[in-house]
Amino acid sequence: MFTGIIEGVGKVRAIKPKGDAVEVEIQCDFDLERANVGDSISVNGCCMTITSRLGKSFWADISPETSSASTLGGLKPGDPVNLERARILGSRLDGHIVQGHADAVGEVVDIVERSTCREFTIEIPKELSRYIVEKGSVAVDGVSLTVNHVNDNRFTVMVIPHTKLKTTFDGLKRGDRVNLEVDIIGKYVEKLTFLDSEQFDRRSKITEEFLKKHGF
User: Fold this and answer.
1) For residue 23, what are the contacts with CB-CB under 8 A and spacing of at least 6?
2) What are the contacts of 66-70 at 24+ separation with CB within 8 A?
3) Among 3, 38, 67, 212, which lies 20 to 30 A Cα-Cα from 181?
4) How many domains are there within the chain?
5) For residue 95, what is the DSSP state?
6) CA 117 to CA 150: how far, in whole Å?
7) Which of 207, 119, 127, 201 is closest to 163 using CA atoms?
8) Domain span at residue 18?
9) How far apart are CA 187 and CA 132, in angstroms?
């Protein structure tokens, strides 16, 4: 589990095919001494497993599923990436609960410079918009952000100078694609309350007609 509080920005050093997957080498700007082979690390919001480590560099495999469901399939040597190691149970939760499972890829459609912040407008797939709520949380390329406004299939977030400088947001441009992960709590609430009435009908066959037919 992650929190969306980025530890540092890494740089893609190399990419090479590995069977039906791709192996990526990433150099960090922070100490990896406590990271072990087999540990999880978030790369632009996608949970990956460290397969090897040397100094400030680590290697990980990008599966075909991750390549198709996120922007990682388009990484190139030299690209910057947001990095966060998995949290230790009992540590402070400064952002929000982030699983590192990208729900979709969005597109930056507008950037506005405010007095002290930078406002990003991101377009998302229509089916994902119901999980985006004003003042709620969303992970964009692994960064925990607060949703300012929602308009149909677009939402805006405000990025403060500290976040901009400590993440890849400093270099984001209009037209760039970003990984999105909505708040998992909303998805569980939807599931448990059977928001999708068709799903409820499939699960429950006890109707008034059924009860009358069986003598109730």
Assistant:
1) 15, 16, 17, 51, 59, 60, 61, 62
2) 66/102, 67/22, 69/102, 69/104, 69/105, 70/44, 70/45, 70/46, 70/102, 70/105, 70/179
3) 38
4) 2
5) S
6) 18
7) 119
8) 8-85
9) 11
Supply the pTM of this predicted model. Answer: 0.85
Same-domain check for residues 77 and 138: no
Q: Give yes or no: residues 117 and 51 share one domain.
A: no
Q: How far apart are CA 119 and CA 60, in angstroms?
A: 32
- Contact predicate 24/60, CB 8 Å: yes
For residue 101, which of 142, 136, 60 has the smallest C-alpha distance? Answer: 142
Instruction: Give the CATH number, domain containing residue 25.
Output: 2.40.30.20
Query: Which among 85, 116, 135 is the end of a domain?
Result: 85
In a domain? residue 208: no
Asked if the model's pLDDT at residue 214 lies above 70, the reply is: no
Pick from 3, 49, 5: nearest CA to 163: 5
In this predicted model, what pLDDT tens digit does every residue of 12-43 receive, in sequence order? 999 999 999 999 999 998 888 788 899 999 99
Q: Specify if 20 maps to a domain.
A: yes
Query: Quick one: pLDDT at residue 91?
Result: 75
pLDDT per residue over 99-144, tens digit each?
999 999 999 999 999 988 999 999 999 999 999 999 999 999 999 9
172 closest CA partner among 55, 41, 61, 82: 82
> Does 33 reside within a domain?
yes
